[in-house]
Amino acid sequence: MFDKLKQQVKTASRIKHNVCLIGILKNMPKFGTVLDAGCKDGIYQKYINFKKIESIDIDKNSNADVIGDLHDKKLLKDKHYNFILLTQVLEHCYNPTQVIDNLHKSLKKGGILLVSTPFFYRFHPDPNDYYRYTPDAYKYFFKKWQSFEIIPYGNFIDCIITILEKEVKVFYLLNIFSYLFKFTSMKTPAGYIVIAKK
Ligand SMILES: C[S@@+](CC[C@H](N)C(=O)[O-])C[C@H]1O[C@@H](n2cnc3c(N)ncnc32)[C@H](O)[C@@H]1O
Prior knowledge:
Elements: H1 2-8, H2 12-26, E1 31-37, E2 50-57, E3 66-67, E4 81-87, H3 96-106, E5 107-118, H4 135-141, E6 147-153, H5 156-164, H6 171-180, E7 191-197
Parallel strand pairs: 1-2, 1-4, 2-3, 4-5
Antiparallel strand pairs: 5-7, 6-7
Bound molecules: S-adenosylmethionine.
């Protein structure tokens, strides 16, 4: 019973991620062809305005149209997408620069890549968990792109709750605090969202 409840309640980090991400997606223009990369259940697709959407994931049990590894240089068509969503995936990739290069090639000129990754978050293999990225890592990844913006989500309170919520039985009550403290911090966020233009 407790385990079932635990699965249904989102972590403080995901709550702040979702508020920030959905706000951004709802303010974006209509896109032609969109890719949900590392989509799992594709929970954010309903917030994107698109003509056509494709999805890819390495996990055979996901909802993806195509099962494939984003590290694979031959997986994606060149200059095909107007918008790529890569939420909570890059920390699971052993070679993030390879993945970002592949996504860059598959975007049309002027296309947008939206990446999100956790900053303070426990080890969560899916199927592996390799890295946490800082603003400096993102500056390095996107230095050759036309432009990019790094947006933090959450704050140190969310980070503390995120650590406690798996250890303390009343973890779901702690999430109330995450709703009360809405400020964000560049140095101690729950994570970052980056919007990069090719
Ligand atoms: C934490 S889930 C995030 C799912 C979804 N993007 C979201 O934000 O709800 C990470 C997903 O990335 C997928 N993934 C991990 N490494 C991958 C890779 N190399 N290529 C494609 N998908 C990958 C996993 O299978 C998993 O579905």
